[in-house]
Amino acid sequence: MGNGAMKRLFIDLEKLNSCAEVNAECSYYYHPKNSGITRLREIGQFLYICRHCTEAPCVSACPKEAITRQDDGIIKRYTMRCVSCKSCSLACPFGTIPLDTIPYIISQCDACIDRSEEEEPVCVKTCSVPDAVKFVEIEESEKDDIYLIGKHVAVHAMPWKKYHP
Predict the structure, then answer these.
(1) What confidence tens digit (pLDDT) does each residue in 99-123 have?
(2) Cα–Cα dist 16/140, whole Å
(3) What does the alpha-carbon distance between residue 13 and residue 42 come to, in Å, rounded to a whole number?
């Protein structure tokens, strides 16, 4: 890109969500069996793909109040309350909460921010879905359905937009 774009961890949610199983190694220091990709998929799902239903059946279905609607309307999972019962996934009428993104063991992703721009994160090298995870220069682009999650992560997602006649 060369126009001042910085290298970011790029997650293509469309590719990841089209596969039955996604595996990728992770170098997150504090959790050797971590699946940071799973955590990034969850965050991207709730931010950009979730329909933010007025009634939010996923919120009502959660027996531990681990799924809530924030003041901005975004649905959030509180991982320390979640028991991974998958009730939210089953209650979602649109299937936007994949079962595998609600694990009992909490995963984290630090986007490998301590790496140089030359060193690819382990998840990029080991993801089981070709070209779904990259470490590239990329900027946010609503036209191309690319959105930022923080400063170091970008996702490709086809966001659901409410039709207003």
Answers:
(1) 887 887 778 888 888 776 778 898 9
(2) 19
(3) 10
